[in-house]
Amino acid sequence: MSSKVARPPRNSFRSTLLAVTAVFVGGCTGDGRTPLVVYSPHGRDLLRLSERVFEAANPDIDVRTLDMGSQEALDRVRSERVNPQADVWFGGPSSLFARAARDSLLEPYRPVWAEAISERGHGPDDLFFSVYETVAVIVYNDAVVSQAQAPRDWDDLLDPQWTGRVLIRNPVASGTMRTLFGMVMLRSLEATGDTASGFAWLRHLDAQTAEYPLNPAMLHQKLLRQEGVITMWDLPDILLQRARGNSLSYVLPTSGTPVIQDAIAVVRGAKNPDVARRFVDFVGSQAFQLQATREVFRLPARQDLPPDSLPEWARDVLANLVVEDMDWNLLAERGADWMTYWDRNVRGRGRIPPAR
User: Fold this and answer.
1) CA 228, 299, 133, 52 torsion: positive or negative?
2) Please, which residues bridge with residue 234 across strands?
3) What is the pLDDT of residue 14?
4) pLDDT in tens, 217-248
5) Coil, helix or strand for 213?
6) CA dihedral in degrees (329, 257, 233, 77; nearest 10)?
7) Which CATH number is 13-133+260-318 given?
8) What is the spatial distance between Cα 150 and Cα 147, in angstroms, rounded to a whole number?
9) Does residue 355 register a pLDDT over 90?
């Protein structure tokens, strides 16, 4: 089966809209199957797997997935409020789904697996539920950086040896990066009562940063070409790169790291809500959770899976992970404002504090 996963250009909303329109118009098969349109940041590996397995079990359904950043998914669902094009929003931090819930963009649905996940994975009024727990890590090119040299914690990214050698995925479109930048701001608030030290940290990081690649594929390519050798990103992508033989390794930060509740929801006003609900039930099923863990390195949100059913990488992460204590409600409330301030006042204006 040829892939139907489309990744739109990241340089503008207009180019994204044109790409989406081409997918919807050009993708009509006329074979009588019911279309299911899914917006997702999960990348082609997981999306192809979910298409293939779901369609095999539901031959009357034609799954059409559009791969985009988490923030782009929220922006698009919001812009289409009057005439929704997506049936399901599959993937992204719960903080973004919480914003969509407040804007009445999601349809209540309690999946059959809802009781199998932690309470933190439940959105208000059954509007969204977590499917995966996505861990953020420090990443390095192990062809040029040894395990002993690699940063062990977030502050190590600011070491002078990494000046000009850090790459950061464009945070504006990325739920993962928004969460990581939000972690910095939440730590600042907890330590000092305001955000000044957090933005000072991000200015220092900006001064360290060689470039902000527009999407994960560009980030991986630039790391492998050694245009930068260090980044911060999510674990599943790095494990996929390693499985392909690419020279990327990761570190679980010693002080703690956000564990993103990676959610799914039915879009309010979906054209095919019954099929959408069927897809949500499928994604969180025990069988597909385990398949996604084994084949595309997703850490399941379900709490009822026997530990010995998980692959070794997942058991290792769970044994060594230090979970950051995040105020997710505050992040959902203020994260967009923090990101706007960073984009206008920090990006490209970073500076390294003078040595004491």
Assistant:
1) positive
2) 136
3) 40
4) 999 999 999 999 999 999 999 999 999 999 99
5) coil
6) -10
7) 3.40.190.10
8) 5
9) no
The three-point CA angle 122-126-129 to 5° equals 40
Q: Is the pLDDT of residue 18 over 70?
A: no
Question: Of 39, 64, 90, whose CA–CA distance to 265 is shortest?
Answer: 90
Rounded to two decimals, what is the model's pTM? 0.85
Query: Where does residue 203 fall: left (phi above 0), alpha (psi -120 to 50 degrees), or beta otherwise?
Result: alpha
Nearest-10 crossing angle of helices 328-345, 94-102: 100
Q: Look at residue 2 in the predicted model and tell me its pLDDT.
A: 41
DSSP sequence for 95-112: HHHHHHHHTT-EE----T
- Measured from the Cβ of residue 175, the count of other Cβ atoms closer than 10 Å reads 28
Residue range 135-258+322-345 in CATH 3.40.190.10: yes
pLDDT at 73: 95
CA distance 300 to 180: 20
- Cβ(341)–Cβ(178) below 8 Å: no
- Average of per-residue pLDDT across 145-167: 97
Query: Where along the chain do the CATH 3.40.190.10 domains lie?
Result: 13-133+260-318, 135-258+322-345
